[in-house]
Amino acid sequence: MKNLVDMFKQRFTQDPDKTAFLVKEKGKWNPVTWSEVDENTDNIAAALIDSGMQPDDSVVILGNTRLEWTLSDIGALKAGCVSIGIYQTLSGEQSAYILKDSSAKILFIENPAQLEKITPHLSELPDLRQIVMWDGYSDGLNAVSMAEFMRQGGQALEADPEIVKTRYLQIQPSDMAIIIYTSGTTGPPKGVCLTHKNLLAELKTTDLMKESDVGDIMMFFLPLSHVGERIAQYMRIRRGIRGAYVEDITKILDDIKEIRPTFFGSVPRIFEKAYARIRSEVNAAGPVKQKIFSWAEGVGRAASRKIQEGQALPLSLEMKYALADRIVFRKVRDVFGGRVRYFLSSAAPIAVEILEFFHACGMVILEGYGQSEVSCFCTLCTPEAYRFGSVGKALPGVSLKIAEDGEIMVKGDIVFQGYLNQPELTHQTLTDDGWIYTGDIGRIDDNGFLWVTGRKKDIIITSGGKNVTPSNIENLLQNHPLIEYAMVHGDRRKYLTALISLSPDNLPAWARLHGIDNSDYEILSRHPEVRKEIQAAVDSANKHLANFETIKKFVIIPKTLGVETGELTPTMKVRRRLVEEKYMEQLDGLYAEQVK
Fold it and tell me: What is the separation of C-alpha 190 from the centre of its chain, rounded to a whole number of angstroms?
């Protein structure tokens, strides 16, 4: 295959009448076949070409994850254009920055609400020729509906049936395919330029997962502007896996029960929140149920450790596990539809305690490591080779090494071409012989497994000269059901402190269980019983840490951290600098006097 469109065409030709995607409308899941995807994306590509779009021109997509996102993306690629996504949660100013930086000429946008935030910035975007709206319509902005745009493409195809084929046959492996704007925990987003060759090399590595794809089905719910979900989308097409679009993320558990996915990819917070919710529900149950769950969990973890070590279960443990599975673990699996063979996770580490719990329940979470700059994954645990806490071995065709200062470096066809319009930053990130500095710290063990130990820029150095990796401590704290996010602070300070954001999902139930007749987050964040519980969680985490790593003081913030406030990236990572600046007065207060 020379380019992504060759890959798409192979699937469309091989399975024209098979279901490609499922779209929920009025409570019913409607199938979309591969031939329908081919026809609709041909119409979009033809309309783009008919509108004057040239190879390598930029097409930007702004909207929630839905079928129209996929069709716009594939249509842009068929036209030889560069496809770029914008997180739907970004502000108008942030969205306009990406549109301007990429010299976007066509914007696919979801609805009038998204268009409203762009409208004040249109005068700053001289390259933008046309806006195509999936839903609704707007006068006076050179905007057309998706249906009208596709009709235009259909007419162009009638006039020249080869208009799309002629264009995509010209696409070379070295041509730009997509630009991923990293959400970034600091500074403005950076445009990561990925070629057709980069993406095909990444997709080929999915052959490492040897299970049969027959009957497989996955869920679409993460932002398609993120490299992880975009690669997952292309992987589904490459392997002929059906994808179901989640219409309402707040009802995802209902959709999961209906779709019953066979494997499942997500960011770590989904698994952490699920684990915290399970523990919260167990804590709220009666003493008999708590005792049964505790027994089953102990049996499951014992079985998990035997399996991790490659040992057969002793007969007594096997019998106990069968009982624990029937009365407890099967119910946990049912939350995820009951058919999940394995989960894939990346973007941040998951505590081994959580990994082991899901494994005990019969669902292994396979962690991988990567970033936009390496086309998504560069290492991955597999069902045949995994170590909890590691991110797996290098994928086929990928080389790893650790620099003298501990930084992880990667080389291979998956490594990006550079940052758009930022040659100096590109030069700082890529070596002349093709290695990329990832910015992460790690080690490779004797068996080839990579262990990520921290982010180079996030390392805290206390005033006593001690180097601390905050993510390890934060993961320990976030194991508690009441803690949604923990952010450790202490660079150039005498000791470490923490900002705590409580879980809005688990907090009200915890309050009722403890006889507190109030569900208001801000009021509960100041309640002495809540503070007492968080202090116990901090004390528990501190037992696993060296003295210089322990949290001496903490503050519970009065509001949850959010994407819309800019405190979290769209992939749910804390923007440390922004959060520290916002709560600096509270943090300074934690150092106002010496700890006794």
Answer: 17
- Distance between CA 561 and CA 568 in Å, rounded? 7
Give the residue carrying structure tokens 């987003």: 189
Q: How far out from the chain centre does Cα 536 lie?
A: 31
305 shares its domain with 382: yes
Residue 336 backbone dihedrals phi, psi, to 5 degrees: -105, 20
Asked if residues 452 and 369 have their Cβ atoms less than 8 Å apart, the reply is: yes
Asked if 231 and 277 sit in the same domain, the reply is: no
**Nearest in space to 163 (alpha carbons), one of 63, 223, 80:** 80
Residue 483, φ and ψ in degrees, nearest 5: -100, 110
Please indicate, yes or no, if residue 219 is contained in any of the structural domains: yes
> How many domains are contained in the chain?
3
Is the Cβ–Cβ distance between 261 and 218 less than 8 Å? yes
Dihedral sign for Cα 376, 382, 386, 388, please. positive
Query: Mind listing the pLDDT tens digit for each residue in 453-493?
Result: 888 877 888 877 777 888 889 988 998 989 999 999 998 88
Total-model pTM: 0.84
Task: Using only the alpha carbons of the chain, give its radius of gyration.
Answer: 25
Checking if the pLDDT of 593 tops 70, the result is: no
Each residue's pLDDT tens digit, 213-253: 567 899 988 899 999 999 999 999 999 999 999 988 878 88
* pLDDT at position 379: 96
- 519 with 404, same domain: the answer is no
Considering 456, 471, 492, which residue would you say is the last residue of a domain? 456
Residues present in the chain in total: 596
Q: Facing residues of 13 across strands? A: none
Quick count: other Cβ atoms within 10 Å of Cβ 24? Answer: 17
Structural domain boundaries enclosing 524: 459-589
Helices 146-159, 34-50: crossing angle, 10 deg rounding = 80
CA angle 94, 460, 405 (to 5 degrees): 95
* Contact by Cβ (8 Å): 210, 203: no
Q: 3-state class of 333 per DSSP?
A: helix
Residues 353-357: contacts with CB under 8 Å, at least 24 apart: 353/479, 354/271, 354/272, 354/275, 354/479, 355/388, 355/389, 356/301, 356/304, 356/305, 356/388, 357/275, 357/297, 357/300, 357/301
Please say whether the beta carbons of 413 and 201 come within 8 A.
yes
Widest CA span of the chain, in angstroms? 82
Residues 446 and 364 in one domain: yes
